[in-house]
Write a structure and sequence with these properties.
19 helices; Aconitase, domain 3; 13 strands; 3 domains; single chain; 13% strand; four-stranded parallel beta sheet; 428 residues
Length: 428
C-alpha cells in the first residue's frame, strides 16, 4: 500500500513488521488516521506520561477488550506510563438497590478485568484514575512545547492552553496507539499554524465571569476553533497560580464540552499568549463580545431535562472535572460557613465532591477532611458523568455546578454560590 506520509526508516520498519504484526497494525492505523487529517509526517511523543479516556468497564465495550487482549498478546504495550479517566463506581456514592444492580451487573460488570488490562498496558497505578491528571498530586504534568499522546477533552484543553503542551483531540484508542509506538501524526494543534487563533473574544463583563458559563458561551460560539481571549486577565490576574489554574480548569472543560475547543489563549496569562501576544491571531479573525447580558442569555437557554422542573433535588455533584486540593478546602470552608449561617449541621441533600484519588489522599491528611465529613458531604474519586449514564439515575433531579456534566447528562446547572445556598438550607 502506498502512503502519502513521509516516514522515517524506523517508522517504515515498524510498518513493515520489524516489531511484530500487532505493532505494524498500530502504526498503520496511526498513519492512515494522520493522512485523513492531512498529516505529512509523524512526530515523537515527548512527554513522560500519557493519559487515556478508556477507563470504563462497560459490558458493551467487548470489541475494545478484545483489542486490548490482542495488544497485550502481541507485546504492543505503551512506551510511557499513563493515567486514565475516573472510575465509574464508588459504593460510597448514593444509589438505591436497582441503581446498584444496573451499575454492577449490567453496565460496568467488566470493570475489574478492564482495570487489569490497563495495568498490563502501562497504567501508572491505582491512584491514576482521574480527568485532572495534571494535578501536582497526580504527577502527570507535561512541559511547555512537549508533544503528548493524551485523550479526555478537558485534560487536552488544559494541557494545550494552560501548560503550553501540544496535543490533538483524538479518541482514547488513537492516543493509546500513539503511546504504544511513541509517535503521533503531525497536524492540527501539534503544529505552529494549527495553534493560531481564528477568533478574538472580548470579555467586557462588570464582574468576574463565572468560569463555567464563560467557557460554555465561548465553546458554543467558536466550536472547534482557537479563541484569543482579551479582558479576562482583568478578573483572574496574570499569574498562573493555583486559583487561576482551577478557574481555567473549569473554564476550559466548558469550552471543550459545550463546543469542541482544544486550545485557547488568554491575553497576558497563558504561556503562548505571554510569549507571542497578538501575533497568534490570524488575519481576519472573527470577534465575539461577551458581556453581562450575553452570559445571562447563555445561562437562560440551558434546558431543564427533569420530568418535574420544580422537583426537590435528590443529589448534588461538585467536581466535573475533578476538584483541586485548594478547591476542596475552599468548598469545605464555604459549606461549613453556610450550614452555620442557616442553623444546620449537615447538608440538606446528598452531596458528592469528586477529586483524583491522589488529591483525596492528600486532603484526608488535613484537618479539613474531618470538617467536610461532619457536614455529610461525600468525598469520592468517581466520574459523575458515568454515574449519570445509568438510565435510572437519569430520571433523578440532580444538580451540579459543572457545565460539562450538564451538557452530557440530565443534571441541572446552577452557579457555585447558588449550589451552596441550596445544599446548606433546609429543604422545604
Amino acid at each position: 500500500m502506498d502512503y502519502k506520509m513521509i516516514l522515517t526508516q524506523e517508522e517504515q520498519d515498524i510498518l513493515n513488521g520489524s516489531k511484530g504484526e500487532t505493532m505494524a497494525k498500530v502504526m498503520k492505523t496511526l498513519v492512515l488516521y494522520g493522512e485523513a487529517f492531512g498529516a505529512t509526517k509523524m512526530v515523537p511523543v515527548e512527554s513522560k506520561m500519557g493519559h487515556l479516556v478508556t477507563s470504563f468497564g462497560l459490558k458493551v465495550m467487548k470489541p475494545v477488550y478484545d483489542l486490548m487482549d490482542q495488544l497485550i498478546a502481541g507485546g504492543a504495550l505503551s512506551q510511557q506510563k499513563f493515567s486514565v479517566d475516573p472510575k465509574p463506581l464508588d459504593k460510597n456514592v448514593p444509589a438505591n438497590f436497582l441503581q446498584k444492580l444496573i451499575f454492577n451487573k449490567f453496565m460496568y460488570s467488566m470493570q475489574d478485568s478492564y482495570d487489569a488490562q490497563l495495568s498490563k498496558l502501562g497504567l501508572i497505578d491505582d491512584k491514576s484514575y482521574t480527568c485532572t491528571c495534571y494535578m501536582d498530586e497526580v504527577g502527570n504534568v507535561p512541559k511547555k512545547g512537549e508533544v503528548l499522546s493524551w485523550a479526555e477533552s478537558s485534560a487536552v484543553v488544559f494541557a494545550n492552553s494552560v501548560l503550553g503542551a501540544r496535543c490533538n483531540r483524538n479518541s482514547g484508542i488513537i492516543e493509546l496507539f500513539g503511546s504504544i509506538v511513541g509517535r503521533v501524526p503531525y497536524f492540527g494543534l501539534v503544529t505552529d499554524e494549527g495553534r493560531k487563533a481564528t477568533w478574538i473574544v472580548e470579555v467586557k463583563t462588570s464582574k468576574k465571569p463565572e468560569a463555567q458559563i464563560l467557557g460554555s458561551a465561548i465553546g458554543m460560539k467558536v466550536m472547534e476553533d482557537v479563541p484569543y481571549i482579551k479582558g479576562l486577565d482583568k478578573w483572574i490576574g496574570t499569574e498562573l497560580d493555583g486559583d487561576t489554574k482551577a478557574y481555567l480548569k473549569d473554564f476550559g472543560a466548558a469550552t471543550a464540552s459545550n463546543g469542541a475547543v482544544g486550545l485557547y489563549h488568554v491575553e497576558n496569562l497563558t504561556p503562548e499568549a505571554v510569549e507571542s501576544g497578538e501575533s497568534l491571531i490570524v488575519e481576519g479573525a472573527q470577534v465575539y463580545v461577551v458581556d453581562d447580558a450575553e452570559l445571562e442569555r447563555v445561562q437562560a437557554n440551558y434546558p431543564v431535562m427533569w420530568k418535574d422542573k420544580n422537583a426537590t433535588p435528590k443529589l448534588c455533584f461538585i467536581g466535573c472535572p475533578h476538584l483541586s486540593h485548594a478547591q476542596l478546602i475552599e468548598w469545605t470552608d464555604n459549606v461549613v460557613a453556610g450550614l452555620k449561617k442557616n442553623g444546620l449541621k449537615k447538608v440538606s441533600i446528598p452531596t458528592v465532591f469528586t477529586a483524583a484519588p491522589a488529591v483525596v489522599e492528600e486532603f484526608n491528611k488535613t484537618p479539613y477532611a474531618a470538617k467536610l465529613k461532619a457536614t455529610g458531604v461525600i468525598l469520592s474519586y468517581i466520574c459523575p458523568l458515568m454515574y449519570m449514564n445509568n438510565p435510572l439515575c437519569k430520571k433523578m433531579p440532580v444538580i451540579t455546578n459543572s457545565n460539562k456534566l450538564r451538557t452530557y447528562t440530565t443534571s441541572r446547572y446552577y452557579k457555585s454560590d447558588e449550589i451552596l445556598d441550596i445544599i446548606t438550607k433546609e429543604v422545604k
